Amino acid sequence: MSHLILMLHPMLGMLAILAAGWLFVETRHVDAQNGQRIISLSNVTAILVWISYIVAGYWYVVFYAPEKAVILKGPWPFAHNYFMETKEHVFFVLLLLATYLPIAARDDLTGKSPARSLTGWVACLVALLGIMMEGYGAFISMGVKLGALPH
User: Fold this and answer.
1) Residue 33 class from Cβ within 10 Å (0-12 exposed, 13-18 middle, 19+ buried)?
2) Phi, psi of 106 (to 5 degrees)
3) Considering only CA atoms, which of 20, 39, 40 is closest in space to residue 98?
4) pLDDT tops 80 at residue 89
5) Is residue 134 predicted with pLDDT exceeding 90?
6) What angle do CA 17, 45, 65 make, to 5 degrees?
7) Residue 6 burial by CB count (10 A; 0-12/13-18/19+): exposed, middle or buried?
8) SS3 for the chain, per residue?
9) What is the phi/psi pair of residue 15, to 5°?
10) So what's the pLDDT on residue 107?
11) What residue spans define the domains of the chain?
12) What would the mean pLDDT of 97-113 be, rounded to a whole number?
């Protein structure tokens, strides 16, 4: 069960990145036909980020302690000391930005409105921070793998 939970987290994160990227593109080309799609994508992005956070939090509290010990005793302790610690803190910015997306997307996004620009750039930041989180997760995963190898 822990492996399923562990894989669910990056999968949801990747879906959120894709949704945020799609949302960014949609805000570059706002018209009467994609207004509802923009609102839907902003909601989907926020929901996916929140579910990813809940799943990761559960996994971290219940299953991470033994893996943390393996990382810290292995050749890549920085996988926890830098990447996990940074991920734990930066993710809150991502969570706040994703939560703000549905609020920003409900405004009038036609023309050169500030809300359109704000929604687009917040979506871009969500996608970029999400990519950063995925990369940091790869370092953490490699830290566990290297720590588990015989030295």
Assistant:
1) exposed
2) -80, -10
3) 20
4) yes
5) yes
6) 70
7) middle
8) CHHHHHHHHHHHHHHHHHHHHHHHHHHHCCCCCCHHHHHHHHHHHHHHHHHHHHHHHHHHHHHHHHHHHHHHHCCCCHHHHHHHHHHHHHHHHHHHHHHHHHHHHCCCCCCCCHHHHHHHHHHHHHHHHHHHHHHHHHHHHHHHHHHHCCC
9) -65, -40
10) 87
11) 2-148
12) 91
Tokens 């799943």, residue located: 55
Token digits for 68? 């943390």
Instruction: State both tokens at 5.
Output: 């939970």
- How do residues 35-64 score in pLDDT, each as one tens digit? 999 999 999 999 999 999 999 999 999 999
